[in-house]
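[audit] Reproducing an earlier prediction to check determinism. Same input, same settings, fresh worker. If the tokens differ from the archived copy the diff job will pick it up downstream; this log only records the rerun itself.
[audit] input (80 residues):
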Amino acid sequence: MAGGEAGRMCRDSIGDPMQIDDVAGSRQLTHIGLGLTRAEAKELRDTLDLLLNDSVDTHEHVSSIDYQTELTVWIQRKSQ
């Protein structure tokens, strides 16, 4: 995925760069792939819209249809 849209790092003025953690193993992951069904992609989009429009620091869960895989997503805030 080098180059193009997928190779660009997103940064904004209100948060640190994306952080991906292995919640069960408590380690930071640096390179991942994310394969979603169309329904899962729509749920992730809707969840991100909810988080972007919510002024309260919170997180949301996006689960696979069989609930065997789960993403926990939140808006990364600036480090102190």
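[audit] rerun output stored. Observation attached for the diff report: Residues 1-13 have pLDDT under 50 and may be disordered.
[audit] end
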